[in-house]
Structure formats: structure tokens, C-alpha cells
From TrEMBL:
It comes from Phenylobacterium koreense. It comes from the Bacteria. GO terms for molecular function: dipeptidase activity. Keywords: Dipeptidase, Hydrolase, Protease, Signal. This is Membrane dipeptidase. Its EC number is 3.4.13.19. Residues 1-22 form the signal peptide.
Amino acid sequence: MINRRHALALGAAATLARPAFAADETPIVINALGGLANPNLQIGAKPGPAADTLKLDVDDRGVADARASGLTAVNITLGYVAGPQEPYAYTLASLDAWDRLLAAYPDDLTLVRQAADIRRAKQAGKVGVIYGFQNAEQIAGDVARVDEFAGRGVRIVQLTYNLPNSLGDGSMAPQNRGLTPVGRQVVERLNAARLMVDLSHSGEQTCLDAIAASKAPISINHTGCKAVTDLPRNKTDAELRGVAEKGGFVGVYFMPFLNLSGHASADDVVAHIEHALKVCGEDHVGIGTDGSVAAIDDMEAYKEALAAENAGRVAAGIAAKGERADTYPFVLDLRGPDQFRKLARLLAARGHKPRVIDKVLGLNFVAYAERIWA
């Protein structure tokens, strides 16, 4: 079954050809939530046993396309997100897998621990890899694990996925509880460890409570704007404004939730970015596509796999409103290695100044990272 958000994989060790452009020809581009997977490897693949869930789908194509896109750094998802795995043990195993992947591509990928590592990755022509979680349940049982994970290189911790957990409610939880006592302890420990607190996928009250509880700026690394498209995975103006007023960061995704039809276009991405700019200001908005760079080659074959994946997500109770068997987890006309350059062209055509476009593509995330990681 395709796991479109988390199917990231260990590929063969290889040094890839340098991208066709020079490092100084593109701005810093940060994907605040994405991946390096080659999704074509997932088409037709049969689901493996539970022990095989750490098999990743990163290969030479996935890494090469990421580099060719001009991507400077990407926040990848590792560790427990949802499912039957024991969260802590699974997360440790996932960290080991990603460490092996980076070791397999030393000339192409580099771990990001500090904001300065992003600029070093750009200078070296590599893609910086930021270790991030999309659930904090692996921490909830023992907040001291924050320090352990920080030592392993984790730099971003999302508090919840779509469902409730012991920290708070996800976006699909109808109760809309706020941040729990455990959640407040985790936020405090994340602040102390200088890790990013990410409120993507959270319920509105959990998000607002975390903004108030955090002593440091927080982020919503991949979302849309609810005022533009009223779906639970998108954020209200109050949430967006609260993040910005605290000096945080909001990343707009390339996902079906940007349009009520479920078939979002590049114009929808631009519309949500423009609304976020209006609410948050030009210093707090970026992109978190929620996808890899490599594009699907055979869309007809992919449709079958997508339908199977959607059925699995619905059965597991983790699907969000707006996900269907026919809704692609990407924007059809904004994918592949040219996606970031095309977005820049679309923003320029709308009259946005180069300064603002560069901020949206990556500089705002770098500035936020400098405020948190130093």
C-alpha cells in the first residue's frame, strides 16, 4: 500500500550527477514538510509485514530529482505517525534507517542540525535533510526522550496527527480538546531543547493553546487557509495570526485540501499563499508541500494504488475530510523538478516582488530556524 506522506526509503549507495544549474542560480528553497521518495517504486508494490514498514523508497531518481529542483533542505517525516507499531521503538528504528540513508549519499545529502547547516548545504550543492516527527506520542510516555531525540538530530516535533493523542486533539477529532497537561509538559521540554513545535494536523483549540503555552515561536509547517477552503486540515485566521504574532512560520502545502473539489491546482496554491501573506505578513509564510519532488510517471497505474491506500487510511480512521480515492496527494500542475521554479514564476506573474518570493521559497524558514535552533 502506498504511504504517500511517509513512504521514504533506503536506496543504493551512489554519488549522483550534479544538477544542471549552478548553486547560485536559484534561491534558497526549503520544503518545510516533504520527502525524497521516488513514488514510482510504490506502484504495484504489495504491502509488507509489519516488520517491513521501515522499508523506504528513496533511490537515485528521488534524490536526483530533489537536487535538480533546486531544493536546499527538506523536513522529512520519520518515526511513529499512526498505526499498530510501538511508537518509541519504531521511532528509534526509523532514525537508524535515515542515518544509514544519509551515509549512503554523502555527496548529495547532509543532516541539518543548525540553521547554518542550511546555508552550508546550499553552498555545497547538497540537499539538507531535517529530521522531523508528525506525531509526538513517542515522547508522551517520557518527556526526557525529547533530549534523546534531539541528540539523534531531530529538529521538528509535530504534536498530533489527525487523531487525538495524549498531548491534544488532531484536526479530525470532533471534541476539539485543547492541549493536555502532558502536551504542556512536552511543549515546555521542546522549548528547553530548542526544537521546533509544529502544530500541523492539530485541532484548532490544541493549536491555540500551544501557541499560548510555548515560550518560543512555533510553526504550522504544512497547511492551507480555512478562510479560503473550509476543511479541517486547513487553519483558521486566528491560528495563522497567532503563529505570526509570536514570530513563527506557516508553510502552505500542495495538497487536495486547497480546493473543495479535492482537485487543487497551482492557482489554488498561490491563492492560499496570498491569503497567508495577508494574514501573517511577508516574514512568516513559506511552503511545506507534503510531498516528494519526483513525479508519478504512470498516472493510470497510480490510480489503482491510490484507491487502495485511501481505503486503508479510511479503515484505520486516519483519513482527513477531503481525502478520497480520486484525490491526488499532490497538485497535478505543480509537481516534478520544476515545481519550485514554476511557483516562483506564478507568484511573480501575480505581482509579488522578488524579495517576497525569496522569503516564501525559503528565507522565512531559515529566519525561523535561526530563532529556534541558533
